[in-house]
């Protein structure tokens, strides 16, 4: 499904994700199920092998707590992957889609900006990945090169001209 079609059918879906983002989730899940579980199992064995009373064994309690957190993270990742709706940008439609990099110029400051538009599960503003369901993402989706997105930001309205749309 193209990202524009997915967003038009459910623009605030938390399951919209790029193929790259889905691959990152799957890799994390695999690492937790293998190396993560092996590490916790070893810590549990080591804690149990001590002569300490199980009720007073702080290492055992800590290892069990970490095992619980690990299994919770695995369950969350499995659910996210199960409900994921991977989208592909349409490189030929000329409009901003999830999975594309958007180069912008702030019309008030002249500052040039670049963001990758992604699903909400993979957003990371510090890494330049903006969620399609964020105010900026919603303002950009469906616009073309040269158009101006108006975004209600904490410091007031920002006007951003789209300089380029690039498929990653």
Q: Layout of helices and strands, plus pairs?
A:
Layout: H1 3-9, E1 16-18, H2 19-48, H3 58-83, E2 85-87, E3 100-106, E4 112-118, E5 129-131, H4 135-140, E6 148-153, E7 156-167
Parallel strand pairs: 1-2, 4-5
Antiparallel strand pairs: 3-4, 3-7, 6-7
Please, could you describe this protein's structure?
The chain is α/β, with parallel strands linked by helices and 168 residues long. It folds into two domains: 19-86, Orthogonal Bundle (Helix Hairpins); 88-167, Roll (Chitinase A, domain 3). The chain is 41% helix and 24% strand. It has four helices and seven strands; from the N terminus they run αβααββββαββ. The protein has helices at residues 3-9, 19-48, 58-83, 135-140, and strands at residues 16-18, 85-87, 100-106, 112-118, 129-131, 148-153, 156-167. The strands form two sheets. It has a five-stranded mixed sheet with strand order 5-4-3-7-6. The protein has a two-stranded parallel sheet with strand order 1-2. Helix 2 (19-48) runs antiparallel to helix 3 (58-83). The longest helix has 30 residues, at 19-48. The protein is elongated. 21% of the residues are buried. The model is unreliable at 1-13 (pLDDT under 50).
